[in-house]
C-alpha cells in the first residue's frame, strides 16, 4: 500500500531524513500545555503525524514524535523545520507556477518571521495558540503545493492539513482554508485540546492560520482608534484632539497586545502596560514600541503620573502582574483615565493569563505538570482582578474589555454577578466591551482593518501606496475619516513596519474599493515594482460572529448566530478572492466565535478590478446589512444610502422599526388581561 501511495503522488515529502535541528538561543518557545491522551489516542496521534512521511523513516521518527507529544503536548516535527530564519522574501524569489502561489508563500513566511511570530519554532504567530499550521511536515508540503499550484487549481486546507490540489478556474480562489471547526457537541476547549494533540485540528486565531498577519501593526491602528474614541466618549476629549494628559493602564505585550503602548503613544496618552514575560518586554523595547521598563511599582507610577501631568506621552512597561499594578494604583489613589486588559484570556487556562503571585517560570511549570492547580490559581486571580476593577472604576476610571474574553473568563471563574442578567453571559456583562461602547458604532458604518502587503518587500513601494491611499480619503467626511487620514499620513514616521512591507488602514466599503482599484492601477501601470496583496483582519463589520466582541452591539438576539461570518466566507469564495478562510475561535476562544477572512492578489488585470468591485463591496456591506437589520442606526443610514446610490442594482433589506412605547403598551395590556383571567 505504501509503495502504491508513493507511485500515486508527484507532490510529496522526500524519503530522506532531515538532520536534527539546533534552536537559536533567545527565541521564545511555546510552553508545554500537558498531555491528556489515552493510550489508544496516543497511538492514533503517532500514526497521524507519520502519514506525511515515507514509511522507511517511521522507525526513526516514531519515538521522536512520541517524545515531542509527551513533553510538549504536541507533535511539531522539529526535525523538518527549514534551517535558519524564515522571512518573507520578494515575490520573484519564490518558486511557483502562478502569482497567487508565490504571494501566499510570502504571507506564510511572514507569519513565521522571528521578529513577528510569538513562538516561531512551534508555528504560533500570536495569541498564545494561533498557528500557521500544526507541524513542520505540513509546512513543507503546503510550500510544495503552492509551488505547483496553477491558475486553474485550488489548494484545500483543513486545520493545517493540505488536503490537496483540485481543479477550479482562474476566477476561483487559489486557496480555501478552514481551522478548528468542530461539530457543535464537541465545540468546546476540552474536546478541541484532544483533537489538537491527536493532530486533527488547529487554532487559526484570525490571521495566523489565515496567513494574513502583518505583525503587531495590524492591531495598532484599531487600538489607536479605540483609545481615541474612548477618550472622546468617556473623558471629554474634543473630536479634533488627542489624549494628551490621560493615563491608560493595561496588560500584555505579546503578539497582539504589544500594540497597546505604541497605539497609546500615537494617540497622545501616557501608558503603563504590565507584562510577566520579560522576553516580550525586550522585544517591544528593541522595536521602540516601549520607552522604558521597570519592575519597581513606585518608579513606574511616579514616572507615569509626572508624564501625564506634564502633558508628555510616554510608554512604560511594568515587569510584573497587572493585578499587583492595579492594587498599587488604588492604594496610592493614582488617577487612571482608561483601563483595559489584553492578556490572552481566550486561552485563559492554557497560559494566556498568569495568576497573581505566580512567576512566569512557575506558570510555565504548572501548565506542564499540574493543570488542575494552575486552573484554580487562575480562577482565584481573576476574582481578585475583578474586585480591583470594581474598586478603581468606582473612582472614575473607565474600564473596557478589549475583546480578549476577559469578562467571560471572570464569569467562567465563578463570578456570576459580572453578567448583566446575573446568571448567564448571553446578554453581556456589567462592564461594556470596547465593541459595545466604542468601536461597534464605527463598524456599523463599515469601517474596519483593511490592509495590504507590497510583495516586492521594498519600502519605496510602501511609501507610494501610503500616498495613494491618503489621496483616496476625504478627512472632512466623518471624524473617523480624519483619524484614518492622520494615521496613514504619519504611518512611516511612526515606524509601524515589523516584518513585511505592509500597512493597515481602517476604511469603509467605498474607501476600500477606491484604494484597491487605485492599487491595481498602480500595478498595471508599473508605478510599483511588484504586485500587492490585499486582506484584512477578520475582526471586521462582516467578518466575525462573536457575542463577546464583534457582535456584542447587536441586540436583536442574533448576536449568538454565526450566519454572517459564514456567508462572508462563502460570498468571497464565490466572487473570486485569491484566498478565503473560515475559523473557529478567533480572539475569544473555541466555541465563542466564527470568523472569515480573505486575501486578494492585485496583478493589475481587469479581472481583479471586477473582483474588487464585487467581492470588496460584498465583504463589507454584507456585515453592514446584518447590522442594519438588527436596527443599528449607523448601519441603517449606510444601508439606505447604499440602496439609493450603488451602481450594481444591489438592494439591502432595511427594517421597519417598531415603536418602543407601542410594544410596552401591548405587553402591559396583555399582562393586565391575563392577570384578570387568572384571578
UniProtKB/TrEMBL annotation:
Binds 1 NAD(+) per subunit. The lineage of its organism: Bacteria, Pseudomonadati, Thermodesulfobacteriota, Desulfobacteria, Desulfobacterales. The keyword NAD applies. The keyword NAD applies. NAD(+) binds at residues 205, 275, 280, 402, 587. Belongs to the urocanase family. It comes from Desulfosarcina ovata subsp. sediminis. Pfam families: Urocanase, Urocanase_C, Urocanase_N. This is Urocanate hydratase. Residues 86-212 form the Urocanase N-terminal domain. Pathway: Amino-acid degradation; L-histidine degradation into L-glutamate; N-formimidoyl-L-glutamate from L-histidine: step 2/3. Its EC number is 4.2.1.49. It is found in: Cytoplasm. GO terms for cellular component: cytoplasm. Gene3D superfamilies: Urocanase like domains (3.40.50.10730), Urocanase superfamily (3.40.1770.10). It catalyses: 4-imidazolone-5-propanoate = trans-urocanate + H2O.
